[in-house]
Design brief:
190 residues; two-stranded antiparallel ribbon; 9 helices; binds iron/sulfur cluster; two-stranded antiparallel sheet; globular; mainly alpha
Length: 190
């Protein structure tokens, strides 16, 4: 149990770091999400790794929600993230503070090309609906402005658990796998 909890803690620390860097980047580059958007939570092709949802799974077990969520995920037949919720005319995330690494970096992180040049990987929604802001943020990056790099955070996840950090799955499958791993972990402990 200690080993798994230790991994959960390390992932949480890394995710907090990603969040901090993303927030700082948004502030410096003058860019932010569209109001109550969550389009990315409903993209069909969004992928994640089980490792980044281990903290969520751990807390789900502690709060006695894990089995209910596993059951509900079995019946969830949409590519939209299981935790994306539309309430009172707004989209949002039901587990915001426990969301995965991709959720914290998507839309506001950089990719590197083969020459190591950083490119701003902005989301489609911002590109379409806020092109001027995106252009200014791109200029900031092109002038050498600091931004979180997706590959750095995923590399650090790999150092925590090579196997679970390298399984890129559709997001609902990644969440399900994390829940199952924590479920079986505690089953064997009983
Ligand atoms: S990253 Fe882009 S798609 Fe996702 S919530 Fe923000 S603005 Fe919307
Ligand atoms: S976990 Fe939350 S933030 Fe991440 S994709 Fe799902 S709804 Fe969106």
């Amino acid at each position: 149990m200690v080993a798994l909890y230790h991994k959960v803690q390390r992932v949480e620390t890394l995710q907090e770091m990603a969040e901090k860097e993303t927030k700082a980047f948004k502030k410096r580059a003058g860019i932010d999400c569209l109001c109550h958007c969550s389009d990315c939570c409903r993209y069909e092709q969004i992928e994640a790794t089980p490792l980044e949802f281990m903290p969520l799974a751990w807390h789900a077990y502690k709060l006695d929600l894990l089995e209910d969520w596993l059951e509900a995920l079995e019946k969830h037949d949409s590519p939209a993230c299981f935790f994306a919720r539309f309430e009172n005319g707004r989209w949002g995330c039901k587990i915001y503070h426990l969301r995965g690494m991709i959720c914290r970096l998507f839309g506001f992180s950089g990719l590197t090309d083969k020459n190591g040049k950083v490119k701003f990987a902005v989301c489609h929604s911002l590109k379409e609906k806020s092109p001027n802001t995106v252009e200014k943020a791109k200029e900031y990056v092109e002038k050498g402005g600091k931004m979180p790099l997706l590959c750095n955070f995923y590399r650090r996840l790999t150092a925590i658990d090579f196997v679970l950090a390298n399984q890129y799955l559709p997001i609902n499958q990644a969440i399900k796998k994390a829940l199952e791993m924590v479920y079986f972990h505690f089953c064997y402990k009983r």
